[in-house]
Design a protein that fits this description.
Length: 747
């Protein structure tokens, strides 16, 4: 690649400033006949971060007194709304002369090519052409404009006309017709001309939607002990363990080291459960007969609703539960009660409300509140995002012999997910939809992804293809400032880095309490229970995976569904997988962290060796002054830091950070490294390839081992006396952990 082409490519990967016309602009007075345009005088607007898009709305409510077919004596009515070449139809009702539809049609003003709106009422016929019943005609110049926040336009009854419009016919239809924008309440559920080619179940997959993640809890099952176990072979004492299951999650305790009928474990099993608690806790006590054979000695099924919720680590009362002897079914239910002694298990079970259930990586976390609502603080700000449009999207599929893309955008912050409507067959879709979130912590990240809709034909076999993703860290935004940028949609593929298009956004972060926001910088990022009683790394990885699955399943049940592949991409399901490219990137991030100290040591070395005599003399003069006047040491240090801060302030970034290809080592990644990154788990590669990669990993691990050893020799701080320790991180540690680490800029 030539230097010019490389420079052009780097420019393509950069963030671009845009100047869209944001805010609402209405004709004078908001009624027909007003000339010119004026800007809204309202201080705030529901849709002030998007470009205004005008639509002609037609609300079809109902009809009455429709004539029946003289042959069949019945009528199967439906309404057809026609504007130029665009037609929209309601559903038809069988044998119903007084139908009710309550359906809205939205025609984009940019695509209106007719001065007349026609509303037809027809009778559907199984064979032949549908019968004409009547119509209503509207002159487009007479359509009123609805100006928010006015109340919705009241529908009216209209008499039907014959084909020529010369006389009235039997029947009436209730309609409301008005000109509005995407801010109208009818917009989300309306039939759009943008999707006029979609039919069947695909209509439900193109609508915009707001989703809420299910409320997740950690369920702690403390398995203490069991009494009076009865193995199948009475001559052998059992070596028992407990297997617990909640939904698809299965965990086991360790096998009791002693063979006894009264084993003890005192082991915690942690699950993820979602409200409403539909699943049950299944517990079985099993005997480890051989390494390959386990036999069930007893079981119990407990509904999750019986367990209490706690907000901290206070003690929870334990309970004894009688186990059903495995093998007795419904038909032998009476026989169970004839047993004189029953096997019992001792449990302590509770829901943990003091933790935040992690379903996303802590590097890109968008919410850190504990599960229990009683522990929530007041919001410190409001985040508003206008999803304007996308430009230059790549072809994602072929339809009717030509390449096309049916794009929609998904945004996730906190528990709230939003999905824009799907724009059909466009490489430059315009959404212009605005959404709002409450912000409880500025050190969080909003994630936006663009996808290609593969479910418009009603087929459910294909996955929605990912086009690209954008992350924005709120702490990098100035408050009360509108950022309008075009973000490159960069995707790393086995063939290398590829730009899939650009996403144009308008973002504003409004701070409600500056003092509270500053105070948060001294607090841990996660709730204190994560530090006082932390989970292991393996537990966190497993729990995050389970939480992600629960969220994906719940959101997949919505209409339209937010599909599993979309949720996994937004939550970075594969962020924990090994990548040589990411490892290199993180290594050089560590190197850059210490680059300042290295540069300072080099400078001091040059001063000591008189590389620059003038600098060395000035340093000696400064040291001599500080020795004579030691009270100037601290003021000099603070003055120097202040001047450095002022100097660096001039070069502060003017826009939020975005996906950095250089930082991510995406531009220079070797083909084999990318092939390894996209490999399946477990691997599907040949044995010699796996051996080569294993040897490479060993060499990298050897270097890391050396660095860690050097750091360990300097780790006296971590060996300090317990009196100077705290389970919660210190205030300076909290502050530096909350500073933007540029981790959200990595691919």
């Amino acid at each position: 690649m030539s230097s010019t082409a490389a420079a052009n490519q780097k420019e393509e990967f950069k963030l671009k400033d845009t100047k869209p016309q944001l805010g609402e602009r209405w004709p004078h007075g908001g009624i027909r006949g007003g000339g010119g345009w004026i800007s809204s005088e309202r201080a705030t607007s529901t849709y002030d971060l998007v470009e205004q898009m005008f639509y002609l709305y037609v609300r079809v409510e109902k009809a009455k007194d429709l004539p029946t077919n003289p042959v069949t004596g019945t009528i199967d009515p439906y309404v057809e709304v026609k504007l130029g070449n665009y037609k929209g139809k309601t559903q038809h009702f069988e044998k119903k002369p007084n139908p009710e539809w309550h359906q809205v049609f939205a025609f984009s003003k940019d695509k209106i090519q007719s001065s007349v709106l026609e509303v037809f009422v027809r009778d559907r016929e199984m064979v032949g052409r549908d019968d004409y019943i009547g119509r209503v005609v509207f002159d487009m110049n007479e359509v009123p404009t609805r100006v928010p926040p006015d109340s919705p336009l009241a529908p009216q009854w209209y008499r039907l006309e014959d084909r020529r419009g010369e006389s009235k016919v039997r029947g009436e239809v209730m309609l409301a017709v008005w000109m509005g924008t995407q801010a109208d309440e009818a917009f989300p559920d309306a039939w759009h001309t943008d999707a006029s080619s979609v039919s069947g179940e695909g209509v439900y997959n193109i609508r915009s939607k707001v989703y809420v993640s299910p409320k997740l809890w950690y369920l702690r099952v403390n398995v203490i002990e069991a009494h009076d176990l009865e193995p199948h072979d009475k001559s052998q004492l059992p070596q028992a363990f407990v297997k617990a299951q909640v939904g698809n999650q299965i965990l086991k305790t360790k096998v009791c080291p002693q063979k006894t009928i009264n084993p003890m474990w005192n082991e915690d099993l942690i699950f993820v459960a979602a409200e409403p608690f539909e699943e049950k806790l299944y517990l079985t006590v099993e005997n480890k007969v051989t390494s390959a054979k386990d036999e069930v000695m007893g079981r119990i099924i407990l509904p999750l609703t019986i367990f209490e919720k706690r907000l901290d680590h206070r003690a929870v009362h334990s309970k004894w539960f009688n186990l059903e002897k495995f093998g007795f079914g419904v038909l032998e239910g009476d026989k169970r009660h004839e047993l004189k002694f029953s096997t019992r298990i001792h449990l302590r079970v509770c829901f943990e409300g003091g933790y935040h259930v992690l379903d996303e990586s802590t590097m890109y976390i968008s919410d850190q509140r504990p599960t229990a609502r009683q522990l929530w603080k007041n919001p410190i700000g409001i985040l508003e995002v206008g999803i304007l449009s996308a430009q230059g999207l790549q072809q994602m599929k072929t339809k009717d012999g030509k390449g096309t893309t049916d794009a929609y955008c998904v945004a996730k912050y906190g528990q709230k997910w939003v999905r824009t409507r799907t724009i059909i067959e466009s490489f430059n879709p315009k959404w212009n939809e605005q959404y709002t979130w409450e912000v409880y912590d500025p050190c969080t990240v909003i994630t936006l992804g663009v996808f290609d809709n593969s479910h418009l034909g009603g087929s459910g076999g294909k996955n929605d293809s990912r086009i690209g993703k954008v992350r924005i860290r709120l702490s990098t935004l100035e408050t009360d400032k509108i950022y309008t940028h075009s973000y490159p949609l960069l995707v790393l593929q086995p063939s290398g880095l590829k730009k899939m298009g650009e996403l144009q956004l308008a973002v504003r972060f409004t701070c409600l309490s500056l003092a509270h926001m500053i105070y948060l910088y001294s607090q841990p990022l996660l709730p204190k229970m994560h530090y006082l009683h932390p989970f292991t790394v393996n537990q966190l990885d497993s729990l995050r995976y389970q939480a992600m699955n629960i969220v994906a399943v719940r959101l997949g049940r919505a209409e339209p569904p937010l599909r599993k592949e979309v949720v996994e991409y937004m939550l970075d399901v594969d962020s924990h997988m090994w990548s040589m490219r990411r490892s290199k990137a993180n290594f050089f991030r560590i190197v850059s962290l210490f680059s300042g100290l290295i540069a300072m040591s080099k400078w001091l070395g040059e001063v000591c060796y008189w590389k620059n005599p003038v600098t060395t003399i000035l340093v000696h003069v400064l040291f001599f002054i500080l020795i004579c006047y030691p009270e100037l040491i601290l003021p000099t240090m603070f003055l120097y830091m202040f001047l450095i801060g002022i100097w660096n302030y001039r070069y502060r970034p003017r826009h939020p950070p975005h996906m950095d290809t250089k930082l991510s080592w995406a531009e220079v990644a070797h083909a084999d490294e990318l092939d390894e990154e996209f490999d399946t788990f477990p691997t599907s590669k040949a044995q010699d390839v796996v051996r080569m990669r294993y040897d490479r990993l060993r060499s990298v691990a050897g270097r890391i081992q050396t660095v860690v050893g050097d750091m360990a020799t300097q780790g006296l701080f971590w060996l300090r006396h317990p009196r100077f320790r705290s389970k919660q991180p210190s205030v300076p540690s909290n502050f530096f952990r909350r500073l933007p680490s540029r981790a959200d800029s990595m691919l």
